[in-house]
C-alpha cells in the first residue's frame, strides 16, 4: 500500500481523498475543518482549478483504493509559533506510472506563501513519495518558459530540462531511485 502522508521539514504532504475533494468542490465551508488546516486567502492556486479538482475526484472514484496517492496531494505548512497549520499548496501526479515507470507531476503554491522555498520542499516531498512507491522510475514535469521560479524549483530537485513539448512548454525529467525498503535493510544490514 502506498503511504498517504509524506513529511518534509516544514510540510506535511497529504494525499487527497474523495471526502476532501468533495468538500473542496461542493461544501467549501467544511473543507478546512476536514483538512485540519487554515486556508490561504487566495485558494486555489495556479492551475489547480475546479476542473483539476473534478478530474482528481473522478479518477479517485473510478480507481477506488488503488488510485489513492496517484493524484492530488495537499501541502500543509506545519504549525509554528503564531502560524497555525495552513494549506499552502497542492501538487501530485497525473495518475499511476505507465509501463516504463514514468509519471507526470505538477505543483502550485498559494501566492501568500511563495518565495519561502515551500515549492522546492513540496516537489522534494513528491519525489520522495514517488520513490517510496517503488513503482516510479522517471518523473516528468512541464512549465511555461516565462515561469523562472518553477524552473528553479525543478532544477533544485534534480530535474533536467529536456526541451519543449507540443504546447511549447518546457519539459523537465528526472530519474527516480526506489526508496530502500527498511525491512530489507534490517535483514541485510545495509
Can you walk me through this structure?
Pfam families: Acetyltransf_3. Residues 41-177 form the N-acetyltransferase domain. The chain is α+β, with helices and mostly antiparallel strands. The protein has one domain (5-188): Gcn5-related N-acetyltransferase (GNAT) (Aminopeptidase, 3-Layer(aba) Sandwich), CATH 3.40.630. 32% of the residues lie in helices and 25% in strands. It is built from six helices and eight strands, in the order ββαααβββαβαββα. The protein has helices spanning 18-26, 31-35, 50-63, 118-133, 148-156, 182-188; strands at residues 5-7, 11-15, 72-77, 86-93, 102-109, 138-143, 160-164, 170-175. The chain has an eight-stranded mixed β-sheet with strand order 1-2-3-4-5-6-8-7, with helices on one face. Strand 5 (102-109), helix 4 and strand 6 form a beta-alpha-beta unit. The longest helix has 16 residues, at 118-133. Residues 182-190 have low confidence and may be disordered.
The CATH topology turns out to be Aminopeptidase
CATH architecture: 3-Layer(aba) Sandwich
Major beta sheet, strand line-up: 1-2-3-4-5-6-8-7
Determine Rg (CA atoms, Å).
16 Å
Order of helices and strands: EEHHHEEEHEHEEH
What fraction, in percent, of the residue positions are helical?
25-40%
Given as residue ranges, the uncertain stretches (5+ residues, pLDDT < 50) are 182-190
For the secondary structure, the number of strands is 8
* Class by alpha and beta content: alpha+beta
Q: How many discrete domains?
A: 1
CATH homologous superfamily - what is it? Gcn5-related N-acetyltransferase (GNAT)
InterPro entries: Acyl_CoA_acyltransferase (IPR016181), GNAT_dom (IPR000182), N-acetyltransferase (IPR051531)
Protein name: N-acetyltransferase domain-containing protein
Pfam families: Acetyltransf_3
Amino acid at each position: 500500500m502506498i503511504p498517504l502522508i509524506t513529511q518534509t521539514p516544514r510540510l506535511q504532504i497529504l494525499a487527497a481523498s474523495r471526502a476532501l475533494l468533495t468538500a473542496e468542490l461542493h461544501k467549501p465551508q467544511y473543507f478546512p475543518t476536514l483538512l485540519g488546516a487554515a486556508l490561504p486567502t487566495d485558494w486555489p492556486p495556479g492551475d489547480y482549478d475546479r476542473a483539476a479538482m473534478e478530474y482528481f475526484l473522478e479518477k479517485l472514484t473510478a480507481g477506488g483504493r488503488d488510485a489513492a496517492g496517484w493524484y492530488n496531494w495537499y501541502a500543509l505548512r506545519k504549525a509554528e509559533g503564531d502560524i497555525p497549520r495552513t494549506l499552502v499548496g497542492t501538487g501530485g501526479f497525473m495518475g499511476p506510472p505507465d509501463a516504463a515507470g514514468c509519471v507526470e507531476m505538477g505543483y502550485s503554491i498559494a501566492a501568500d506563501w511563495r518565495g519561502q522555498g515551500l515549492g522546492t520542499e513540496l516537489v522534494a516531498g513528491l519525489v520522495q513519495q514517488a520513490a517510496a512507491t517503488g513503482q516510479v522510475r522517471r518523473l516528468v514535469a512541464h512549465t511555461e518558459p516565462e515561469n523562472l521560479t518553477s524552473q528553479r524549483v525543478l532544477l533544485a530537485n534534480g530535474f533536467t530540462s529536456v526541451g519543449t513539448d507540443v504546447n511549447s512548454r518546457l519539459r523537465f525529467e528526472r530519474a527516480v531511485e526506489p526508496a530502500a525498503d527498511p525491512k530489507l535493510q534490517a535483514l541485510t544490514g545495509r
